[in-house]
Amino acid sequence: MEDRLVSDWSRQINFELQNLSSSQKDGRHLLASPKEITHRKLRARTGVRKKMEVVQQDDEALVKLENTGIERSKAVDSAVLGKYSIWRRENENEKADSRVRQMRDQMIMARIYSVLAKSRDKLDLYQELLARLKESQRSLGEATADAELPKSALERMKAMAQVLSKARDLLYDCKAITERLRVMLLSADEQVRSLKKQSTFLSQLAAKTIPNGIHCLSMRLTIDYYLLSPEKRKFPNSENLENPELYHYALFSDNVLAASVVVNSTIMNAKEPEKHVFHLVTDKLNFGAMNMWFLLNPPGDATIHVENVDDFKWLNSSYCPVLKQLESAAMKEYYFKADRPKTLSAGSSNLKYRNPKYLSMLNHLRFYLPQVYPKLNKILFLDDDIVVQRDLTGLWEVDLNGNVNGAVETCGESFHRFDKYLNFSNPNISQNFDPNACGWAYGMNMFDLEEWKRKDITGIYHKWQNMNENRLLWKLGTLPPGLLTFYKLTHPLDKSWHVLGLGYNPTIERSEIDNAAVIHYNGNMKPWLEIAMTKYRPYWTKYINYEHPYIHGCKISQ
């Protein structure tokens, strides 16, 4: 920009100097003395210098504006968007979309000049700019690479270049353009923030929903289960359910398809499937469907048993703090009767914290494992959004060194430490816990139930859950009370046992996933949802038979 302006001004000065020289040759020098001519030359050079200073000031303003934009962009949290922009930059060919970028640049300048044209009553030019802008928008569409552009794009780029050249000659004003760019940058920044909030809201909303296909599957299985006679509803090998010499798994889920993937992937990668026992617990709505699915699709030689959490009569409000809290008017108001936001962005900050699933007993049942399985001494707890990729029996051989919980730690530098999950402004937290203590992950946990009972882990959990009735210690979920309950009672497992982040992080190394014993789709982008990340979904779908009559009939597809 500076070079072009200086060049134009230099040509103008040279032209004036040539006129002065010509006037001397044809006798017109009598109109101006040598002193006046020298003065004119000096004044012309001074003018050029001043204009260059103005350009430099404008360029400095632009640089400052760009730096401000960069700093603001760094502050935008891209976690909800899955850090897609980071992944994209690593994989795109910079030259692959040069025309697309040029068209976008032209459209930006067209918007600027259209504003200037309208403000200066250049209405014909204004209409022409708008027309070319619409043509470019139609050509560009959703294209992100040159190959996606229509054949007419090149002609429209040339037409836009011509009208921009015309506008530049008539309207060019460095200061006005700088101001307009500043306005556009601030507007774009606000739009990004608004879209980020909307994206957060919609992502959380999608994560709460059950796809129609899975709902259909559950309904059809439930109907067929209750058409069975009672004697056909029983699973074989019930004698294995309390045998402590076998490998026992706890899986609590209300998603039939997700539970089937966990069981199938575990058995298909097990060295001795007949020694594995699966204890499934679901709710009354999905109890029939979960039973029917595994009656129709038994896990080979492994043992499986399905229970209904509502049949645990000992799990009542007089014993369980979460159930007691659910009965309080304040909790009902918070979770079920809170004012609904008027806009998507306004509701994004509330939706996550007001999700009743965080008070679901299926979610909190993990704190009652010895009560559910009193005859077992060890059990491996699995979430329903994981996939098993290798034999897990080695976990039963890990020495927990007197600890209760074996888990993979998740902290790295300042991330996923206790102060991220807990309110350290509360003295009950700050006086009892280290804010820099390392967090760990639920999803694949080896629990020593003998040590659990000796250390009264359920009692510790009850203590902290009772103290958090007003949500002053932590906001939501089972991980914060888990961190408190198992504080200094957790043995760190090797990270290759459990790789997390497939539900939100698109930058996980392929080798890290392939070498993991368990991969975990924690986050909003679950593999059974449409918002799942495409590159991670095949690890999950490989354990589903899409030709199965029930799955095919409910139109569940890859």
From TrEMBL:
GO terms for molecular function: polygalacturonate 4-alpha-galacturonosyltransferase activity. It is found in: Golgi apparatus membrane. Residues 116-146 form a coiled coil. GO terms for biological process: cell wall organization. It holds the Pfam family GAUT_1. CDD domains: GT8_like_1 (cd06429). GO terms for cellular component: Golgi membrane. It is an enzyme of class 2 (transferase). Pathway: Glycan metabolism; pectin biosynthesis. It is a single-pass type II membrane protein. InterPro entries: GAUT, Glyco_trans_8, Nucleotide-diphossugar_trans. It comes from the Eukaryota. Keywords: Cell wall biogenesis/degradation, Coiled coil, Glycosyltransferase, Golgi apparatus, Transferase. Its EC number is 2.4.1.-. Belongs to the glycosyltransferase 8 family. This is Hexosyltransferase.
